[in-house]
Amino acid sequence: MSHHYSGPDFTCPHDDPRLDFCDLFAFPKPEDSSRSVLIMDVHPSMSVNPEGPTTAEPFAQEALYELKVDTDRDAVADIAYRVQFSTSPNGAQTATVRRVDGADAAGTGDGGQTIIQDAPVSTGLDAQVTEAGDYRFFAGWRSDPFFYDAGGALNGFQFTGEDFFADKDVCSIVLELPNSMLGANEVGLWQRTLVRNGQGWVQVDRGAHAQQVTFLTPNEDKLEYLGGEPADDARFVDGIVHVLEQAGGYSAEEARRLAEPMLPDILTYDPTKPVGYPDNGRLFTDDVGDYVVAILTNGKVKEDNVGPHDDFLSEFPYLGPPHEDRTRA
Fold first, then answer.
1. How many domains does the chain contain in total?
2. Can you give the residue range of the structural domain that contains 219?
3. pTM value?
């Protein structure tokens, strides 16, 4: 289900849905192609294992949500945007965003230059947008833009066209910035979430490409994958090859030809070129579900009969309002 439920057996990392990476989007600002919109979706409103609604609190205050930017194609971050959340005196969450450049961007820590301070987190239907210098920022509940027949996927790809996500919400972190802030025309993007332990920050989820962990990574490899770095992703090729052989009936050679380009797990994005998944960035309307199921089934199944949602906004933060108002009374 996109990258939703990326832990083993469709669980959430550390059994905490607030840490669960869902989707990564990147596209030029519709009305100004000199700027880009980067969206990290986490925390699905509905869990499948265990089944039921998740917590109303959007983000984990003990976590770090990070967007990595590779500017020189070595699968190592050269820029990082780090987002942390805290509670304001009135009980609502606020966000602080820091930017890190150079060698420190590839590391694990919560330092960096503060570019946005105490931005309000939205829990209601209206989007609370923060502007700071060249940046625009949003964090909070939104309508989940992912569309997919999840029930059919879990039933041997016997699709009925029922969109599991049509009435679901997700917690979005949206950053709008000048293209020049990305450091190069073509960059590589990925997202990760981290939590503290006795030794410091520990990565518990990460990714960029849709459904790569959920369906293409063997269950026994998932925890190591989620804690890994893209620069080391070649070690997971054999596992993906095995999944493709079993699911699609590919030969070993065919499966390897498909698997190797999937890694490292990084989304390529160049705002000067047409955007469309999987080649360049990702739009809300890109049908990643159909793309992945065709690979998994070796073309035997080409679509899940579910199309894009129609509740997107024409202005920042572009994601539609949530289906449920979670504003504190």
1. 1
2. 8-296
3. 0.96
